[in-house]
Amino acid sequence: MSFIKSEFFLGGVSQTGFQTHFNKEIEKTGIFTYILKGGAGTGKSTLLKKIAKEFEDKDDVAIYHCSSDPNSLDAVILKNAGIIIVDGTAPHVFDPIYAGVCQKIINLGEFWDDSVLEKNYLEIISVTNENLKWHKRCRNFVSALSSLYSDTYTIGQEALNYKKLEAFIERLATKVLPKTKLADGSTEFSQLSALTPDGYVTLLDTIKDYDNIYVLNDTYFAGTDLLLRDFATIATMKGFDVVISECTLLSPAVYEHLLIPSLKTALISSTPINNNEIPDANIINFQRFYDKALISQKKQRLSFNNKACDDIICEAISALSNAKTVHDDIEAFYIKAMDYDKVDVTCKKVIEDIKRLY
């Protein structure tokens, strides 16, 4: 039996800070969550990777990357077992709601030597503050990006031929969605794309086995947002569960991608932010849904937005990259203080506890 592996980001940077919907996963009925606590370098990501590897041939596994460091994990969901293991430290703080019943804290900070950390007291404070400054600088740039991208979105809204696009949405839904009426489906929010130190990244491996992939080429965001919202409504009314990914660089966040896992169908946007290209995908060009005359009237404004955003997003990425470099310095102090043998024992205990569910 083959199991499904999917990849997302736990969340993404926005103009108001880190944005995530992951708390909705924790709050689901029948879910038990292990919440990992502890500072940088305490082994949280390594523990998550070990658990994901252990159960990849026993369960459908969703892994959640850290947008500040895509090589690190922030969470793992074992879907059939109903188990979540998540990093509950800032900027994504999670705490038990029903402690011991639905959630349990695992404090990896118990396994560091305080005396080792105390020797580097001033250095740890210094690098931690520097890391926070770089993240603040990134948020400032993202705030500027959000204003400019949202201005382009507004222009797109004003120029959008709603009647023409809605007629197309109906035809696409008829083509893609089976006619069978089931009970209403559900809507989940998971971050498929995020701003990272490596650029704006979309985790396309999640849909590598999908049969039907549509790439939505949209320069102005508004048409794609409307299509994905309407398509999600139609799909759930027909009984299909959908996964929505929002673009956190616009405010309010707009719909960026839509997945229908049971149909192996994905609608993936390609915009000035993500520039997604997928070989052999079905291409939908949104230029035909905008009034060319109205767009032409705003040509200078749009050009300014595009050029400014190209420069600003590079600065935001640079700030994230610098934050990661400093974070690595923070980790170095804690690595020296950690007893990883005890972390490994804890990991094995969690794995054994989970295995009893199969």
Protein architecture, described:
The protein is an alpha/beta fold and 358 residues long. It contains 9 helices and 16 strands. The strands form 4 sheets. Strands 1-5-6-7-4-8 form a 6-stranded mixed sheet, with helices on one face. Strands 9-13-14-15-12-16 form a 6-stranded mixed sheet, covered by helices on one side. A two-stranded antiparallel ribbon has the order 2-3. Helix 5 crosses helix 6. The longest helix is centred in the middle third of the chain and has 39 residues. The model has no long low-confidence stretch (mean pLDDT 96).
Features:
9 helices, 43% helix, 16 strands, alpha/beta, single chain, 358 residues, 6-stranded mixed sheet
Short description:
By secondary structure, the chain is of the alpha/beta class. Helix content is 43%, strand content 23%.
Low-pLDDT sequence parts: none
Give the neighbour order of strands across the main sheet. Answer: 1-5-6-7-4-8
Distance between the termini: 14 Å
Using the alpha-carbon principal axes, give the shape.
flat
* Largest sheet, strands/sense/barrel: 6 strands, mixed
How many beta strands in the DSSP annotation? 16
Radius of gyration: 22 Å
Average pLDDT rating: 96
Instruction: Kindly name the structural category.
Output: alpha/beta
Quote the beta fraction: 15-25%
Order of helices and strands: EEEHEHEEEEHHHEEEEHEEEEHHH
Helical content class: 40-55%
Query: How many H/I helices?
Result: 9
